[in-house]
Write a structure and sequence with these properties.
about 375 residues; elongated; about 0% strand
Length: about 375
């Protein structure tokens, strides 16, 4: 090969290695350090690949409980795979650079790269090589990057699990008020039967804060969306749907003074779910209005009102206007709620994961509960 051509080839290979290193480091920073939601290509591809791997095991599940046990490992395992992917790219990138500066054959460059990234020091570039200073700089920089990526993961996991525990506290408490799977109708009738509807004011305020917290955590710490609740019939997204529906019913059909707290809770909820949907590039109408369609039928709505009335909940006389008001609230979060239920493979819950999404696990396992 002509010397100039070989020099140009090695320069191109060296630049390719630099680009790969910068690309990987930026992916790590945008995934673990950047305090905002950022849909990172490398992270997204890793999650898709792992989802494809888990789909083979998922096909063997015969019940939703089996599916839940399988998919409970999806997010934790993928989190551990991500730094492995990064380190693999870093090793390959530095292999290119070592080869480009003449540190040895491609295989020898690979051994130097692997030894450097794990700070083993078993293999180093030939010190008699005229580019030994460059090789030494590469070795030290690669060792720093390897340690840094591991440190990022170690710092990231406690933050992730802290946000998970905070999220699950209210989700677990909701079972006491709304059963499991959670039902908006049960939430209202149980409050009416125990202490009266006034008790719901504190609940709306607590869940308004909860929605604000997941708005931040579930976009900046994206893998947490796939962390499943400790119990297979619980889910953060079905709990969110239950609270939003209960607040919407209270604001539209219950003959009771309108609650500003309930309406603020609804707004905090659909804003949070839309931001999470934006992160995952889920399409939705950003400015919906009644009579845009919703997934709840008028028959289901009437049945819910009859159940509440039978339990002593005061219902407004004009049910036509009540339906319009309820649909006007529900339309703000209907699409994103159903899509996030599908994305996270949420367990059965009325008015959320039981809706007509063709690829939902509810339809897959034929789950129907009264």
């Amino acid at each position: 090969m002509h010397p100039l051509i070989e020099l140009g080839l090695r320069a191109l290979v060296f630049l390719t290695g630099i680009v790969l290193v910068v690309f990987t480091l930026m992916a790590a920073v945008r995934t673990f350090v950047l305090p905002r939601g950022d849909n990172v290509l490398l992270t997204r591809l890793t999650f898709r690949l792992m989802f494809w791997v888990f789909s083979f095991r998922r096909k063997k599940a015969r019940t939703y409980e089996e599916l839940d046990r399988i998919m409970a490992l999806f997010a934790p395992v993928t989190l551990l795979v991500i730094p492995v992917v990064w380190l693999t790219i870093i090793i390959f990138a530095y292999t290119l650079m070592y080869w480009a500066i003449g540190a040895g054959t491609f295989y020898e460059s690979f051994k130097i790269s692997g030894s450097s990234v794990y700070t083993l020091g078993m293999f180093t570039a030939d010190t008699t090589n005229r580019d030994s200073l460059t090789a030494t700089i590469l070795e030290f920089s690669q060792a720093t990057i390897g340690l840094g990526l591991v440190a990022l993961l170690l710092a990231y996991l406690p933050t992730m699990y802290s946000a998970f525990q905070k999220r699950e506290t209210l989700v677990t408490m909701l079972e006491v008020r709304a059963d499991s799977p959670p039902s908006a109708v049960t939430l209202i009738t149980r409050a009416q039967g125990i202490r009266g509807l006034d008790v719901l004011k504190d609940l709306w305020e607590a869940w308004e804060v909860w929605f604000s917290e997941i708005d931040e955590s579930h976009t900046s710490l994206a893998p947490i969306n796939f962390f499943r609740s400790p119990q297979p019939d619980r889910s953060w997204i079905t709990a969110a749907g239950c609270v939003l529906d209960a607040a919407s019913l209270m604001s539209s059909v219950v003959d009771y003074p309108r609650s500003a707290e309930a309406q603020l809770c609804i707004r905090a909820g659909f804003v949070a779910l839309r931001h999470i949907a934006d992160f995952f590039r889920i399409p939705y109408d950003p400015d919906p209005h009644y009579p845009d369609p919703i997934s709840i039928t008028r028959e289901e709505f009437e049945e819910a009102l009859d159940q509440m009335a039978a339990e002593g909940v005061p219902i407004v006389a004009d049910r036509d206007q009540a339906w319009k008001d309820f649909a006007g609230w529900r339309v703000n979060y209907d699409t994103v709620l159903l899509e996030l239920c599908q994305l996270t493979m949420a367990p059965y819950a009325p008015w959320s994961s039981d809706r007509g999404v063709q690829r939902s696990v509810v339809g897959e396992f034929g789950v129907r509960r009264s």
